[in-house]
Amino acid sequence: MKNIFLHGESEHMYRVNSPKSYIVMPKLPQRLEKILDIAYNIWWVWNSDALELFRRIDRDLWEEVYHNPIKLLGSISEQRWKELEADPSFVAHLEEVYKELHKYLTATTWFHKEFSKTNPNCRIAYFSMEYGLSECIPMYSGGLGILAGDHFKSASDMGLPMVGIGLCYRYGYFSQHLTDDGWQQEDYIENHFFRMTMKRVKDEQGNTLKLFVEIPKTFSNGDEKVSKDNLEKIFFEVWEIKIGRNSLFLLSTDIPENVTENREITHRLYGGDRDMRLRQEIVLGMGGVKLLKSLKILPTVWHMNEGHSAFVVFERIKSLMKENNLSFKEAREFVSLNSIFTTHTSVPAGIDVFSVDLINKYFSSYCKEVGIKIEEFLSLGRENPDDKISGFSMAVLALKCSLFVNGVSKLHGVVSRNMWKNLYPNLPVNEIPIDSITNGIHTNTWISYEFSTLFDRYIGPAWKDEPENQNVWSRVKDIPDAELWRSHERRRERLVSFARRRLKDQLLRRGATRAET
Question: Element (H or E) spanning 398, and its range?
Fold first, then answer.
């Protein structure tokens, strides 16, 4: 088997799948070691100079590894490294990008200027089932993940002190291809975390940080006595992704300490049956709270991006009850005061609702621990608490346990208020406390290199350095029409060229000859 060379942590070898397969990590030339600091911070995704730095190493390979800088660096030959080390132009380029990263990380931000004196210890915890940061980290399926990724990038630019929690999927979400006769087929591509722009989190002793959540081993009807002997631990390790000034922590249960069915919890995004989905959301919400506590991070605000992570409220309630001698009701009220919920779904079918049997199975022991009956627990996930038949809705739980709730556009706010009006029977629909914040994008990620340089020339660096300052865009009118059109034409040419390449690759995969492509 061919050796796979990778850079990563201090260990020299890692066993990968097969007992005969290893990942070996060589040492970079000293003059080029700074490139690792750049590669391990997603900041490079929205910095044109950093992207060009990686392309210069090997343009064809950069495309082949799907814009993954860690995989790129681990695939370069020793001879090529010597050539780059001896290239003064490349070394100068590297130094310039490294200085730019350092300047970005140490600059005074909008948040620091506005809030450092009033709330210097503010931290925002952000929970989401998926994050779309880059195509080389395929742990997202669509809009929810892309929005979460753009939230984090924008937060970094503005200096918002955010910490993210998600799941680290071994296979992510499926991709699709067409068969020879035109049928769509699903493909799951394995993610090798050491080949990605993330690092394992260590504990204070330098060992891999491993935590756990507990679930019942067998079904419980809620009436029998539940002891520690009836509980099993789902262990998880943690991977960190640096996103500019902030960190995203991803939890993985695919470790030897777990039985097979629990290792599979973090195999696939939105995969498996309802039982699997429930266990995923227990790990995300309750496991995420345990992680932040282990890292000694005390968030000021807890944000749930869609209802998948709503179990965060139960772990927080239990923790507050133990540490502050509070009742369940008192702890719940406190949790609601700094919880925020963003709902994305406009139809009931898109919301996670779990059966009474499943909730009973996984949370009867929790109810006994916090001193409430299972019906009180179930009522928090039901529109009508007296309805003994309906399932447990994660969106309803988040709505009932959040001080602030928002939809993702003005129209969606209207739809959401009508959708959840039964939760507020004594309020007119227009007064239901569901606000709206229109989805936005992270400008630097979505502006092409051609337009980025055009904006730099006529608007100045403020368009990307001061994202909160909307006045800078008034200078767009100073850009000559001819230059705008020329940049647009360049982008159109690149789009056509890209589409042709992708079509050619697809035809070759389906067995077409070179002549046919």
Answer: helix 394-400
